[in-house]
């Protein structure tokens, strides 16, 4: 946590808020907690909005990534430090918002039952991610898409697993198949994947919709981390079918074989890709049912209404004794 702290930011925050009164202090992610603690009196209501649970994220990195024993010891020490902050923080907050039930379940398994942990999933802008606004035929050859930040450890791990264990299986059966990589800040290791047959590296683009429309389906081979799941919601909003690991789709109430395909092993993931390549009717079915689910439950308008209702209920409560 000290790595992210800056005394000048703390002073600026104190100066900006001095003499002002607030109904609630709403902050995002764990790294801002030390600033909030120093800058605001304890009588304010506190809401923490999280993109991921750091304790869970780092535990999964320790379990999944290849590391030297020194790196493992350092990561274990960091997990211990983060766990102390998590345990302290949960009792200071009036509300903690997490992205999925897996995040909530993990926290409650560590800190005990807490009624101030609330799940609010992410979603998509159905007006922007609307295929009818720019109709486009998919690629003539079978094409999959991976879309996401290409310097994010879970995405790097996902693509390395895919490139080493899944991609060769698909390519062996369908030499005409390709995967397109779209995302910002690619590492050198990700850029090097452009040399692998059947992997097309694009990088950062101003508008991802064209790539969703061009792809036959989207892959989400995540093995680490909770978080936003924005790309699944956006892709399905465009009726782009999804193949994901169970972890990759957690937090969205999507059912295997109805809204998407789930696969957690390299062989089953490759098999799922080959199913979608060979079955046009399955692609259409998953694309339609997936889009219908997003429009019903995961538009920003629907999520926003839930958020406003919850925030109002918090404001009506007595301030938490801290």
TrEMBL record:
Which keywords annotate this record?
Glycosyltransferase, Transferase
The top EC class is transferase
GO molecular function ontology, one term from the record: glycosyltransferase activity
Q: Which SUPFAM superfamilies match?
A: UDP-Glycosyltransferase/glycogen phosphorylase
Give the E.C. number(s): 2.4.-.-
Under which name does UniProt file this protein? Glycosyltransferase family 4 protein
The organism is Rubellicoccus peritrichatus
Upper taxonomic lineage = Bacteria, Pseudomonadati, Verrucomicrobiota, Opitutia, Puniceicoccales
